[in-house]
């Protein structure tokens, strides 16, 4: 979204747009005609982008819907004036039920502003009486002059509408600072923030996401209300998330050379992720993940790894050892074979001098065994969900308690365990001998497939900024990154920028 400055600046920008739209009316055609110029700040509002993404409509339709919703939140008198001034046609049914003529109702939505004004003034009292449940019609008085309508009444109502749009953008679910994906490969970091070197070792696959409202019963089927086909995989998403935070990022993953592999590579490049360290596998088929995603973001998934063909092997890590050791942070996932993760950690163990911060997402735990104690002690952070933590336990206890299992991992050697649950984080820190509880940030959405990936990228980002190995602030920053992603989940690219994370932290006034 464009930076329109303070809320007051944005209010003036939106007011100008609304005043300009009076001449032709706020309709799809007029917005499309000026979408590249005049209406751009309106179309780029996060509230408009969210509505467009959720309802799968063009931004112009989303803008009209948000304007309509905001208008109806104002007083009935403002509503009457705005509906005619912009030709929205929102109140036609209420007018008809109250005996307003069909001719007058049509004129209130006419393309010519003069006809709309005339119909408004001629039917002033009737239109207000139609909304008598919301306003005392007796207090309305007679119709104003056209000069008063044009010079004071309309501007005052549009000013209230612009203010309501600002409030909707600022306080609706998600972001008022949401931005489009970066496209400049030479994008510079935010002033005052360090730009680090991050290496991500994981998977890049294609996701087939079916958005559903209820799970089908056994041996039945149900219709999805939306479908998304896009590059995915935890490694890929973590790499894109880290790049969104302004870092130089390379993804180390095995990629098939089919048409889907090409699409994945193009997607990475478009999101400023270096692809030179990818392992291209000729003649192979791209792995796929099928996802059933509910309206509030919680999901189920099944995956086909094709790991007999498309896989990273231990010797592949030897080829990128120099890049590995030169990084500021290394992110890994259990999407790659266990022996490959262990070999990469062994290379880090043997590093002379300062080694990168190491973050491992225990996604899709290995079915047969966990990592060996020899390499666990070279992991700074294990990022895990409760059900995955249970799989990492060696006790086999029927009654699962995450607390002793997390401490067991640290006793084995892991520096810290980040347990993610319901949008918050509990971090068990070996160095601090303490448990850090990062709060849950309010959002109506339960989860997002990219939430943990944003957490890992945010964690690496804050460790690079602070230069520390373990930090409560890093847990807060990473939790805010995760919560931003959950809150912005319906948007096509919900992964946050540093400004977005900072705004979330500022709103909740957390330590930093």
From TrEMBL:
Pfam families recorded: PfkB
Protein species of origin: Kribbella jiaozuonensis
InterPro entries named among the record's database cross-references: PfkB_dom, Ribo/fructo_kinase, Ribokinase-like
Domain Carbohydrate kinase PfkB per the UniProt entry, residue ranges: 197-497
UniProt entry tagged with the keyword Zinc: no
GO cellular component, one term: cytosol
Name this polypeptide is given: Carbohydrate kinase PfkB domain-containing protein
The organism's taxonomic lineage, starting at the top: Bacteria, Bacillati, Actinomycetota, Actinomycetes, Propionibacteriales
A biological-process GO annotation: phosphate-containing compound metabolic process
Keyword Kinase: yes
Keyword entries, A-Z: Kinase, Transferase
Residue ranges with Polar residues bias: 173-183
Chain segments carrying region Disordered: 173-193
GO terms for MF: kinase activity
